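Appendix B. One record, verbatim.
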Amino acid sequence: MPQVAKLSSKGQVTIPVEIRKILHLKAGDTLAWGIKSKGLITVRRVGPMAIDYLSALSGSLSAWNSVEDDKAYRDL
């Protein structure tokens, strides 16, 4: 059965207990959020190595993150 949670006025969501148990989540864990398609969001727990990798990756690609770049690379 799907689990439901409300978004707070601060943009916070409490992850339901059943999902926390299945994913072995505990206070202080870092979560990576992603968007697969319209309306589908993924969430996974990440460790220190993954956090460093994601930070490096996002920093290296930010130079190509403009409307002009999107237009230029659209047909490649």
